[in-house]
Design goal:
- It is a single chain.
- The chain is α/β, with parallel strands linked by helices and about 270 residues long.
- It is built from eleven helices and 13 strands.
- The termini are far apart.
Amino acid sequence: GLEVVFVSSDRSDEDFSGYFKEMPWLALPYADREKREALSKKFGVHGIPSLVILDEAAKTITKEGRKAISEDSTGEELPWKPQKVSELLSGAKIVSREGREMGISEVMKEKAALAFYFSAHWCPPCRGFTPKLAEWYSKDLKGKGLEVVFVSSDRSDEDFSGYFKEMPWLALPYADREKREALSKKFGVHGIPSLVILDEAAKTITKEGRKAISEDSTGEELPWKPQKVSELLSGAKIVSREGREMGISEVMKEKAALAFYFSAHWC
């Protein structure tokens, strides 16, 4: 059920025609440069080859189609829609330090937020951050409704077990490498330590959890949901060149759009 349309970045119609003969699919005509530019801009294509996959309603499924198809060349997971976190966690087993297994619904019972802590004992920054996080968790964050699940990048079960003993929270079993890979991929984790925070409905609040908690270690703003722009601007005063103050609602009266111009004279 997959169709492919070649969108050419060739330098001439002749090059396009010769290359298109090698392909078993369709193409946007070379002469329609305007449409090519519009599609490239729409999907943020800055390098090739690039493969963007849409659903039957022409809504974007993924801009990482090359990776998706390379990892599933037989199309078992076509159309490669990303799993929701709730789906990904369905059936996952989480363990306590004592070895008790529980499902994610039990883990989240009466909790305000869940943090996946991607870490490993071999990683020096992780070993530096873990004791701080453990102190903040035990002193304030756990009591305010945060649960933490350690997702290990250790090189052995033995390393995982030793490191997990230093932690006062839960963990994804080391043996569940498939779930670890799926979570890392889902949240785009490319470096550790990394802390991803979800709400009670397993929706991502922030992938910058390490920064959020480091700046608010007592959890006064837990679960660290980003402010909406409207909330951020509430009460803000805007001034005219004559010095007249006005609120944002007055600024936007009968306007179609608002632009914040970040600039400086020294620049």
